[in-house]
Amino acid sequence: MRNSVGSTLELIGIDKAYMRGKERVSVLSDIRLHVKAGEFVTLIGPSGSGKSTLFRLIGGVERPDGGRILIDGKEVTGQRGLISYMPQQPALFPWLSVEDNISSALVTAGTSKKEARELAADWLEKIHLKAVAKEYPHVLSGGMQMRVSFLRALLMKRNVMCLDEPFAALDALTRADMQRWLLELWEADRRSVLFVTHSIEEALMLSDRIYVLSPAPATVLREIVIPFGRPRRADVWTSPEFVDLKKEVLELLGEGDAALV
Ligand SMILES: Nc1ncnc2c1ncn2[C@@H]1O[C@H](COP(=O)(O)OP(=O)(O)OP(=O)(O)O)[C@@H](O)[C@H]1O
Prior knowledge:
Elements: E1 9-20, E2 23-35, E3 40-44, H1 51-58, E4 66-71, E5 74-75, E6 84-86, H2 98-108, H3 113-126, H4 142-155, E7 160-164, H5 172-189, E8 192-196, H6 200-206, E9 209-213, E10 220-225, H7 240-252, H8 256-260
Parallel strand pairs: 3-8, 3-9, 6-7, 7-8
Antiparallel strand pairs: 1-2, 1-4, 4-5, 9-10
This protein binds adenosine-5'-triphosphate (ATP).
Protein name: ABC transporter ATP-binding protein
Keywords: ATP-binding, Nucleotide-binding, Transport
GO molecular function: ATP binding; ATP hydrolysis activity
């Protein structure tokens, strides 16, 4: 058994609809999925299929119309503060320096201010951002902001992390660097992760399992177990299995023909 500080997350029969004018529009329909302790699970689905909605439900910001959310077997539907969440745009406090952004996350997680300052300095050194510790977030590049934002989510010390397309705004090279960096940090302490991306390659590179969602109202079309070992080799994308899995997901998303062009 590998070491893990993660919790299990289970979504059982989640339904959610919104009113659009007078019409009730179903966004999520009977979603059933789980993340085991220390597992990296990715949701992939068409734009507007309700992935961000699902995160708001898991975070307790909204309640589902039906179904239950369990963490470590205990019902937590509608409860806040149990997961750490990293949104699509880096969520940093613009009025705090980089080191204060990090130490405030630690203080929120219960660390004393003095210890938080020391730990923040250690972490910034580890992620090669010591040089910008005293700067304010707007001075940082997109990739740097993303690293600080991810570190904040990690240091919140929740056992489930929900990451909503964290690399979508980055260029391809920075994105590949960030994926490697994320895997290294994650493999060191195995928090349970639920990750959203539009990139099939990213999903295959990072995950233990993938859930492919249908267009809204979203439902799980298929669960795919990723056969590549850990630590994951940077060149897995060259293997025939990778190409086959990519084709399978493309076909499920209705883009299979486009992939053959
Ligand atoms: N508060 C709300 N009120 C009404 N409709 C909403 C609300 N929140 C989301 N929706 C609708 O629910 C659907 C799913 O939205 P959501 O943002 O969850 O999708 P998504 O899969 O995260 O999209 P993307 O991949 O483009 O980020 C959309 O049609 C959206 O308009």
